Amino acid sequence: MKIAVLSRKASLYSTRRLVEAGRERGHEMHVIDYLRCYMDITSHKPVVMFRGEPLTGFSAVIPRIGASRTFYGTAVVRQFEMQGVFSVNESQGISRSRDKLRSLQLLSRQGIGLPVTGFAHSTKDVDGLIHIAGGAPLVVKLLEGTQGIGVVLAETKKAAESVIEAFRGLDANILVQEYIKEAKGMDLRAIVVGGKVVAAMRRKAAEGEFRSNLHRGGTAEAIKLTPEERSTAVRSAKAMGLNVSGVDMLRSNHGAVVMEVNSSPGLEGIEAATEVNVAAKIIEFIEKNAAPSRTKDRVKG
């Protein structure tokens, strides 16, 4: 098969591993910078152009769309979809996962465990927001944040008020969530491919840090999920309409709660911690499912 990896750089670990895995299985792999693509939006003849040439003959695309490039990246994915090319994750699913509020609302509708979360526009409602989250300490998140950026732990009510007012003063949309103290700075990441958990790790925050992101000094180890955690990860991916995703969870006193569902999960940390060839799992999924116009998004919302 002829497969395109939509990525800014061929040298990125996840992109490189997907290309290697595809070639090892005999496929023709291409890395395409989606920001260099442009589109001919003509009735009955949708075309994606790259460096002056139409991108044709592809059986599948693997979107690796950066969070700050979601709008244009999903437009390119959507154009491939209009051509009948199979996309590992569809444009709508990517857009849902990038909208933190929308994704939490969808997860909530499916009865999936979440931290108690509040959302408001006016700073006049700060007291109500803090009350919803159960009081301090609590976590304040920017809706547009990613990789731990724009996530603040407010340990007192006064600190929470100051952070919320500061963010709203910048006209930033925010979420306020309960702080899961019993997680002890650890979270779980499960990689879901085709409705199955193929790898899972536990990440632990660095000393003095509450965010467990690996690039912030966190450490990771392979872990066996409980049946409840495995089910939660699979249901979360399905709720987003994602075939490939990274589901981040915390172990709380009332079970697994989902923090985020990532449509372009990094492969470096999970492959190193678990020694699972996740890239190959994604290619195998494509082999079993890629067919013209095969993927149809059925998630409402």
- CATH fold label of the largest domain: D-amino Acid Aminotransferase, Chain A, domain 1
CATH architecture descriptor of the largest domain: 2-Layer Sandwich
Number of strands: 16
The largest sheet has its strands arranged as: 14-13-12-15-16
**SS-derived structural category:** alpha+beta
H/E topology pattern: EHEEEEEHEHHEHEEHEEEEHEEHH
Description:
By secondary structure, the protein is of the alpha+beta class. It folds into three domains: 2-96, Rossmann fold (3-Layer(aba) Sandwich); 117-179, Dna Ligase, domain 1, CATH 3.30.1490; 182-288, 2-Layer Sandwich (D-amino Acid Aminotransferase, Chain A, domain 1). Helices cover 32% and strands 27% of the residues. The protein contains nine helices and 16 strands. The protein has helices at residues 13-24, 70-82, 91-98, 100-109, 126-132, 157-169, 227-240, 268-274, 278-289; strands at residues 2-6, 28-32, 37-40, 47-50, 53-54, 60-63, 86-87, 117-119, 138-142, 151-154, 174-178, 186-193, 196-204, 219-222, 244-252, 255-262. The strands form four sheets. The chain has a five-stranded antiparallel sheet with strand order 14-13-12-15-16, with helices on both faces. A hairpin with a 6-residue loop joins β3 (37-40) and β4 (47-50). The chain is globular, with a radius of gyration of 20 Å.
